[in-house]
Structures are given as structure tokens and as C-alpha cells.
């Protein structure tokens, strides 16, 4: 498939991000096929056409079923509200398309399992949009761990916080409902940190979770009585990894001042690695080596020594941005499709993340084995 | 008591810290009684004499029982190994002395309870050396919370980490034993963070704890077989405060690169406060006020606007140090004694901290109510 | 001109950056014309064709003169070595093209003046690639200053440092020659900071400069005798702005550990603004307002409140990258062309920067009025 | 002199600092003589007595001439307003006392020269209170440079800023006069940075200075007409060190948000060292060694590996404070007196600093050789 056709459903936050990524991926990475921006789906019709024009797609439609069965479409990108992921992904897979789906995978574990099953049956490639694991800084952390740079791993901490639901006076939205949004902070942001945790530490074998809704009701947008918030504002857990290590995890969507805070620490017997997404071009490394008077955390600025940074710019410290991570993700997906190998994280990999967040949500302070 | 006589037991890390504090407290704070550095206890005899000379104590002894009953001694400072705290403190109280005891209060809950009982019976003042809560930055955090600067409190995180037991090849010491050290990281450092947490959030009503010994044996210092480590290297917990809020807590003595890392975050409905002891002269405050384009975490450098900083130097941003915190603590104790009011944290207050750390140690992943 | 044709000369570091920018600009900004990637020039021929394929250009050529006179080309982007800028830009202007030229504008003041003259004669739009001034954080700094957020301006400091010439053993290259590179750190990086300084403080009226070549010779790449370094490794200056304020400026290409450090401080009578390009999504603001106990530098994370950040992603704190700045620059140039107004910084504006850096280079410690 | 008698003139900001330092120095450093706090001078009489009581001095006086000639006084500490330094120091030296004088040494170069001459004639020890050079972090920077850790030195930058004169509405004080204060920011803070610069880089051979009074008048404290500010609010200079390196220097007393900002960078051919007094327990070191993917600035937290930190506390990262630096200074002075060797910086050393700041003040943009 020398020029795979892209069908994109959704033109919002992540829809634009996908459009930019598939638009730039071939210019950034000379070694991937050139995607054709074939078909864009949104509603109403004039919006679909306008956004197709803006994003550089050849055609527009308001019918996602037409998109997933369009013969010129090879890859379906799903960036719609979470409750639509399962139906769209399964239909696309059944139509023989590869599927690039935004996180969280689905609203419920049942949906996620059905998607995984459909992927298996289809023989097509799937990928879930855990874009933060594409960061060269994160990839370098993985490489360092693999090389033993911090010794045997003994502990993990990961926190992911934003403040978009911090204001108690913010009106009620669909985000507050189980039916539309599923889990709260856990599903929206927590899953990102778990993708990072598993990539660094390996699978999670048990969780003890505790979730809280700190703003129990919110003003109705139509006026009248306040409406209930049905899902978690804050979720925390003590994890145990398959390797036996303890992990600590917390996520909040009500953490004032945090805009995209995703902090992790990996503790090892020879050193520590620390990262914060709000300074996404830095990796912090402590190693117990050299004279003790000169030891300290090193702030490593990413550069060409941290692939694939150099594909964006040859100059170190010049900084990648959020949208660049999706471009790397698109390249990985195109490569997996070209090679006929499973992409990471596939639906199967993402299902494991869903199992963790749903276990945390259900735990109520008891240990749940996975 | 215009010039209370100080009897200090121990001349090590915290012994020196107490000596410096009581030596400086009157010069720093014009409004406290001038302590007399009366009697110093250590062994052997020549060491006791030498340290008395260095620290400016009038007399020296090798007999702590003589010290606690010495008529010229009004305040007994206990900075000996933890297993000796209970016996010494109780004897001092029974001899009618006020007691300034280093943390952790005792090895076991039984000891801590006996100490609290003895304090109550004696009618004397007690204080446990939770020096970090004396930091003007911490006190300012308390003041801000009290004034509602960050609204209703909704979440807490606190982490305290050092690396003094991070090296797997470090020889076995008494620190590894329950009999000599009691709890591990929990008792040595975790209790500090809990003193800070309770001071900010109020009492803790339940914990779910999980502790780990990551270096299960250590080389025997005498050679031969490796010896077992009996207490926690890492301890984590999900807390619930009496006010209903969730808290997250973790402590490690095996966290490479952390020297005195004591990080807390208090999340409120109107803002967040963040602090790190490794930058102890800074407080980080986010408030949801003013134009959103100008919002951000403010790095507040402590100064005379944050009492009692100004007693040390009138110039802001000039920095207090670790030993200065003990001087503030000494002033607080002297004032409580002069006023005949209970000091904070008294043995009774510190017992509540002991109850939390022992509950975390015993929890094994189950919720324990306090 | 609904779909202006882009002719790009050069496919290296900045050539790729231009290709990505003009490829993405319409998807990012719905309100600009959609550029046609028309013609790409590089040598040899197969490289030109390959890069045209990768970057999405319709045609390729090895002849830049053909490119600048191609009727399908409306905008010529010049990203070649600095010594070629003048000839190419003037030819393009004479052929009636708009010119988007990388910095520094030219090797010599004479060249820069000739380019400015050609631009004036042509009536076409010109822009020099001072991309860092496109940063929403920088634009917010300008807005704050304009609104009086930090009062009357009293002082400026600006430093720009990298380490690509820090290693004394690095072989000699064309960068070391006046004939090929012109000025050293001043021409390569210093000019960026001066574009920022002038944008914040206004024109510069005099300089006292002092330049140093700290690695006076370098190993010849062909072996044999070491070869001389003819231009500045480090350049510093005391500036006076037209408004009377003092400024301090320094740049080094031999500053170990600095990868893209561009730090500025603007001191005002009511506050201070600080910025560092190595953390390009943050702006630091101190204002003398509110209770003194809560004053401090605020770390503002850029977001949709800082246009045009929101065109890239609606979520604050998610981070723009280096290449995104060029996309903003391309949008500005397309808008200026569409509107028929002068772009900023045009050749005329950039000439003022050239005059400053050449005055610094020539000063030898004496004040030079501009 | 087993117990040198201390005579302290002044009980303000630095007077208290000296009292605390000489009160603690023997307890902190076991290997120095125990100072006797003998005589304290201030006015009026009741204040002198009260402060003697608070600071632990045996006697009080209102007559500094009595103090400098008191037979029980061996060391005279001068912490009075700068205009009194010369007369007091010379009288003390003539009375055969050692003199520990606060910075800046004097108001004028003539005074500083007379003091140096008096010191030479007396054969007594002198020291000027450049306390920041006592910081273990600074001392470690010196050690690293001496060991070649950053190679040959090629460049220096040093900035020292506060905001105590930033508010334009602040009333006029004696600080604004040449007769009472001498130089402005240069004399009050700039000299500190020059003490640090010379200690790291060696002597300064020429300066090009530029000074500014940005608040030219201030409200009269008695009301009525505004009064003129006669000295520098901001002073900047390009330095040349005797070793040939360029240095950049700036100081402001009107820099909003800066409380005790003293930042220096030493650039070498193999690395860079960076320090900021507002985070005085950290030293930042970049070395060009090891894999490039792991290079970065290391944040070294001071600890026992950085003498004499360990004399204060055996635990790394526990932080020294501002007053601790004066204690180290007192120990150095006591040791020099005991050993009969010259202390650093003596009056002679400090005279060199005065020559630099007065040259900067006089330069008006011309190079002045020293």
C-alpha cells in the first residue's frame, strides 16, 4: 500500500491533531508511505466540507458508515466522543480497514473486549492513541531502563492532573455521566499514565483503588436544579506490577494549576528517572555513579540523540510539541501496516489498560487481582 | 522560669541540632527566656566533656538518669536512638521535667501510649521534634488554607524520600531491625510528612497501606552471611482525612537522588499549594483568580512577611536553613512552658501520628479505621 | 491570490522547517490561503526530486534562478547558506516574488542594504525568519508590556547560548570564516535575541560591544595545520534603547550545556517578565500587586488564552514545538501578502537588527551610535 | 588566644548576623577557639543593654571608641552604616585589634586605601564580610574549577538583583546619597558578585561600565518637594579578567521579584557551572563527558561531600541558611587569627573589589584599566 487512504471521523481537538499528523508524517519521516487524506466525516454537511478544505482532505461526508466502507479508505481514524468508539471501530474492522482510535478505547470493558475480538478476527492493524508514549524523552527513559542504567526497578509513581473540572461553578456537561463519558478522570487522563507505567514497568497484576467525586453536583446548563456528577473527579491507587514492584498512581481533573501534568518517577537500585509532561522536552536522570560530590539529577534536553527527535529538527533543545507526538504515532502505525506487524499499543494492549482503570474504579479500597 | 536549664541527652545529628537551637534561640527571638545550657549527657565520659565544651554546656555526665533528675535541669532534650525515647521521657516526666523529644516518638504504639500517659500525669509540657512544620513556608501554607485562599480542601498528596538506604551493597545496620529501629522509612521519615499532612488537612480517619522491603537482605558488616532487613524500605498509603478528603502518601529510604525530599500538594476548590523541602524557602501557590492568561503557580520566596522568618534576617529571600527550624521549635517550646499551655505537637499529638504509621505498617492492603 | 505557489530553495535544517510550515499552515489556521507547494530547489537533481517527494512539492529543480522566475511561484523561501541570501532574494524580488528569507539576512551590511532597497523597489512583501518572536509566550509578553502590566520599562537583559562550537577539538568548518559565515555567534544566534529585544523594548540607539574568539584555531578537517577561526565565539554588549533604557546582551556558541538557551528579562517599574526558550511554553511574570506575602514569579503555561496557541490545540499546557513557530510565521506572511500590508519583520526591520550586530562586532569597547 | 573577646558595633541586620555567628561558631566547628561575646555597642544606652542581653554579650556601651580600645576585646566586628567603617576600622587596628568589617568596605576609594594601609601597619588580621563566598556550593565550584572539571575558563556572567528600591513611590532615604551610602546597587550588592567573580576567575584587569539611576527622584519622607537620587539603581559592565576572559556583570536594586538573586555562570572548554543564591543549596554543573544522550546540567544538592556543610548537619540536602554563611566566615577569621595568617578576603583583597566597583561607576562607557 504505497499511499494508504485516510478516513478521519471527527474534526475537534483530536480530529485536528490526526489531520495534522497524517498531513505531516511523510515530510517528517522520509521512510513511511505518503498517506492520502481521502475522506473526512463530520456533521453537518457544510462543516464537513469546510473542514475537509481546511485539513486538505479530498472529500467530505456526514455518514461515518459510508466512510468506513469507502473503498478508497484504508485507515480509519476515530476521534469522536468515547461512546461511539466501539461501534465505529468494529464496523471499520469488519469492513477490512485498519483502525487508529483515540483513547480511551471505549466506555465499558465489554465494549473494549468486543473491539479487541473484532480486531483479532479482522486481521487488520489497530492502534489506540496513547500519544505521550511517543515522546523521545519517554522512549529514552525506556531505553535507559532496558540498558540497566538505573538497575533493578523497585518502585513507580505516576500522577496525571488537569484542572478543567476544578471550578465548582462550572456547568454540568455530558462528561459527568457514565452513559456518555464512562469513567471520569480515570478514563480521560488516567489511562494515559497507565500506558506510560506499563511501558516502563511491565504489566500490572493488582490494584487497590479509591475514587472520589469531589464536586457531587454541578449547575444545570439550562438553569433549574443542580445535576449529579456520576463519575470520578479524583482516582488514586496502589498498584502492584507483575515484577512485584509497588506503584502509586493518582489522577485528578480538579487539580487547579495543572494543565497537562503527567509526572512519573521510576525508582531503581542504581538510579531514578523522572519526567513531567508539562516540560515534555526534558528527562531527569539520577545515577549513583561518579564522585558523590558531583552527583545530582541531570536535566537532559531531548535532541537528535533521542530518536526520532532528529526527524523534526537536527538541533538539540529546540523542542517538540504536543502535535508532533501524534505525527510519530502516525508513522508507527503506517510502519506497522506496511510491515504487517502488530502496532503498539494495539486494541489488545489497550484492553489491558482498560482492565486496570475499571478495576481501580470498582475497587473501593480492596485489592483486585488482574 | 526566667532561665530554664537545658539537659541534653545525645550529641549526634539531632543532639548538635538541639544544642545549636537552644544556644541561639534567645538571640534570635528577643521575647523568649534565655535557656541555660546546663548539663550534657553522652558516653564515654571524655566525649561528654568534650562535647559539653564545644556546645557550651556547663556540665557533662554519662548518666542519663542523673541528668533527668538534676535539680538545675528544667527541660530534658532527648536525641538518643529511638528505642531509648520512652524510658528516658517517662523518667524525665516523673522527675517533673518538661520533655523535648526527637521523632519518632517511640518504637511501638505501647511505648508511645505510655509516654502520653506519663505526660498527662506529670502536668509538664512535652514536644516532639517535628521541625519541618516550623518552616515559615509551611506556616504560611497553613495560614493560606485557614484564610480560604484555596477554597474547600479536596485532596492531599505527600511524599518523603531519601536515598540513605538505596544502595543494595550498603552493609546491614541496626536500622534494619524492628527491635532497634522499629518501623523503617515510615518511622524515620514518613512520620514527618504525616505531621505536615495533619497540620494542613486535620486528623486522618482511615488508611490503606502497603509496605515493601526492596532490599531484603544486606551484607553483614562482620562478613559472613547476609542479614535480613526487617522493616519497610518503601511505604505507601491511601489516606482518608476526617474531613472526608482522599490523601495519597508515600515514603522511601531507597529513592536515589532524593536527599531530603518532602513534597506536599494541597488541592482546593479555588487553588493549590505545593511545597518541597529540598527548596525549603519557597512556597508554590496557584489561585483561580485574575485573568486566565496571567494565571500560574507563583513561587513565593519566604521573607519577613512570613513569620518568624524576620527574626532571623530582615531581608526576604535570604534563606533559612535546616538548623533554624529547630531554633523556631525551641522558641515555641519555651513559650509554651512560660505560658503554661500545651505545645504543638505534644506527646498526645504525636501519638496520633504514631497510630497512623503503625496502621499503615499493619494494613497489608486493607482499610484500617483510626 | 487564493492559493499562492511556494518555491523553496534549500532542504536542510530550515528548509524542512519551511516545508512543514507551509504544508500545515492552512490546516492549523483556517483563515489563511492554502499554499501550493509548487517547486523545490536543491542539488543534485536526484536529491531535489527525492525531497520534493518527501515534502509534498509538485516539482523539483536544481536551478534556483529557474525557481525565482517560475510563473507558478508566488513566494520564494530562502533557506540556503547565508552567503547566498542576498543574490537570491534580490533576484526573486526583481522577478516580482514575495520573499521569505531565513536569518541572518545577509553576510554584510552592504548586502542587507541592497536587499532592503530591492524590496522597496519591488513593492513585494518580505519577511525574515525570526521565528522565536512568533511564540505565544513572547507575544503575550509584548501584550503585557503594552498594557502596562509591568509599568514603565527600565532595563533589559538578553542572552542566547548554544554549545555547538564549545568543543575545542571540533574540526574547522566554513562557520569559522568571514567569507562564508560572516559574523559568528552574533550572526547565527545573537540576531534572534535582538529581534526579541527590539520587539519588546523598541529600537536600539547605541551599543558598546566586546567580541571574543575563544577557540582561535581549530583542527583542519583534512589534517595538517590547524586553521584560524575568524569570527566571534562570544559577543557581549551594553545596549541603550531609544527609550533611554540600558540593556545587557550576550551570546555564545561555546556555552556547554546550552542547546537553545534564549533568556530575556524585561524589568519595569511595576514588575518583571522573564522567558527562556528552552522552556518555550512558559512565561514568568512578577507583578508588584496583591499582598506581599503572596507575591512571587508566576509560571504561566501557554494555552488558548495566548493566541494563536489555540489554533494548534484547544488544551492549555499541551505545548507547542519549534516547528510550530515557523507555521505561525508562515501564516503571518500569507496574511500580509493577502492584505497587501508590510510583514514584520520585513527586510527593512531586519536591516535594523543587522546594523546592531555589525556595530557590536565593530565596537571594540567603544560606544557606537546607531 | 584561646577565647578571643568579641566587640560588636551595631545590632541591626548584620549586627545580629555577627552575634549569631560568633555565638554558634564553636558549637558548629569543634576546632576553633571559643569566642567570648564581650562588649556590644549601640545607641541609645538602653538599647545597647537590651541587645547585649538578647545576644548574650557580657557588657554594653554606647561609645564605639571605648569598645575598640577595650582590653578585653580582641576582635572588633563593624556592622554600622558604611560611612562609619573607615574611621572605626582604622581606630580598632590602631588599638591593636583584629577587624571583621561588613561590606562594602568604605564609601570611597580613599577610605578603603587608608583602611588597607592601617591594616598593613597594624600587623593585625582583617576580614571583609563577603559571606556568600563561604557557601559550600560556591566553595565546591572553586574546587571543581581548580581540578579542571570544566576545562580552561573562557567566559563569566554574574548578576545580582534585589527589589528593595524597585517601587518608584518609595520615600527617599540616606541610601540615595553619595555622602551617606556612596555607590548604590554597586556598593550594596554588586561588590558581593565581584567577590564571587574574582574568587572563581581571578583578578579583573579592565572594565567598561554603564550605570543608571532609573528613579531619579523620590518623594521626600517629610513631604514637600521630591528629592534627588544620587547613585546607581542599575549598573552593568563588560569585564576583562587578568586571564584574558570576558565577563559580563550587572546589578540592580530595582529588579521586581528578585529578593537575593545572585546568579553566576562560569563557562569552560569542558563544561559550565551555574549558581543562584536564591537556591543557595544547589550547584548546577554541566560536563561534556559520558554519552551525549545522557548529558545535561546536574543539580547538585550540597551535603557533607561539600565542606564545611557537614559541620552543620551530617545529612545531605538538609539546607544551610543565610546566617550559617556568617558562621563559616567567623570560623575562617578565628582560624586565620589563631594561625597568624592573612584571612581571605582581607582589607587588601577587598580594596581590589572597591577598585572595580568605583571604576565601573566612573567609566561612562569607556574601558578603564585596573
Automatic annotation (TrEMBL), chains A, B, C, D:
Annotated coiled-coil segments of the chain: none
Keywords on record: Oxidoreductase
UniProt domain Gfo/Idh/MocA-like oxidoreductase N-terminal: residue ranges: 6-130
Molecular function, one GO term: oxidoreductase activity
Secretion signal span: none
A family per Pfam: GFO_IDH_MocA
All residue ranges annotated as the GFO/IDH/MocA-like oxidoreductase domain in the record: 138-274
PANTHER family, A to Z: BCDNA.GH03377 (PTHR43818:SF11)
Name this polypeptide is given: Myo-inositol 2-dehydrogenase
Phylogenetic placement of the source organism: Bacteria, Pseudomonadati, Pseudomonadota, Alphaproteobacteria, Hyphomicrobiales
